[in-house]
Amino acid sequence: MSVITVFNGLFCEAGVVVKRVLDATDCRLVTDQEIVADASRLSGMAEDRIARAFQAKASVFNSFSHEKEQAIAWMRLAVAERLVEDENLIIPGFASQLPDPSIGHILKVCLISDRKARVAVAEREEGFADKHAMKLIRKDDEDRAAWVKALRDVDDPWSGTLYDLVLPVASTGVERSADLIVEQLSNAAVKVTDKTRAAVRDFLLAARVETVLAKEGHSVQVSSRKGTVTLTINKHVLLLEKLERELKSIVSGLDGVLAVEAQVGKGFHQTDIYRKMDFDLPSKVLLVDDEREFVQTLSERLMMRDMGSAVVYDGESALNLVRDDEPEVMILDLKMPGIDGIEVLRRVKSEHPDIEVIILTGHGSEADRKVCMDLGAFAYLHKPVDIDVLSETLKAANEKIRAEK
């Protein structure tokens, strides 16, 4: 039996098609939710942080935290372990893009319909109005396009180059679409062979290597063939030979790795800078201050010290970003228009107690200091602050966060 992967657009009746294929075969279903749960178990990352990788919009801190890349690496390992254990699977959804496309016994299917037909399905099945359905479809298409771009470096998520079978469900019909998938399982091109099983083992080794590198703060493209691991660096780095030596030293001793090669990819000469994540430094710092020039300069100085930061200029924006991105450390001014710093601190520590908040103010009193510390602030500093003092305070807050995790 072959493995089937099914990538689909929203409101393309993919669930019904997959159900029919399941009924007609002895395949077992592996959902996105199961892969996320497996990846969470393997990595220790929270499931919601892993699932966020499916969204087109990455965290504002991602260039330093590499959280999306880490999530993809662990999900890839989760899928690889499933493929080694079982050759009778259907993997629909976002996870369908995770397996190495060189694995020959995977039948790669895409289910899609034109937007008019998808809107009609949304109205018929969910009772959604046209405008609401279109909004959901556009957002989902955006997420899926970004996902395919990240994993396959292809702009069109429905491109026939990615699949063995592209089925327009609206015109083909649900029943016939399912029948065509089942029929293709008898195609010799997708039969399980010793060669295709070897490709699965190569994929598993590459996935393991990728997660080991992620644990060390690295994010590179990994492939494997017969024990030879190839590491591809797709972002510019000044000391390339030093990075290559470091990567090779991490990978060389791993079980199953016979040789390691390093190379630069097509993205190496672009403007992106390679950043290794330093777990001893905070990578998700939110700066909240209405003095724009001051806070922008502070952000630049922290980045020069390899601390990733984002900037907002008022309390309401800070609370919105906390909700969407959940920073690890916040540097917070007290006197701001609208929601002031004390109220921001109160809400953050009430709703997100794991976030450490450093108060940095030029107007605070001893009474303010006491209120802030009673509310759970990590530290209370005065402007102007020595950057080394602030850096050490940030590191101490980061150490507390890591210890508690």
Automatic annotation (TrEMBL):
It comes from the Bacteria. GO terms for biological process: phosphorelay signal transduction system. Keywords: Phosphoprotein, Two-component regulatory system. SUPFAM superfamilies: CheY-like. The keyword 4Fe-4S does not apply. The modification 4-aspartylphosphate is found at residue 333. Pfam families: Cytidylate_kin2 (PF13189), Response_reg (PF00072). PANTHER family: PROTEIN PILG, STRESS RESPONSE REGULATOR PROTEIN 1. This is Response regulator MprA. The gene is mprA_5.
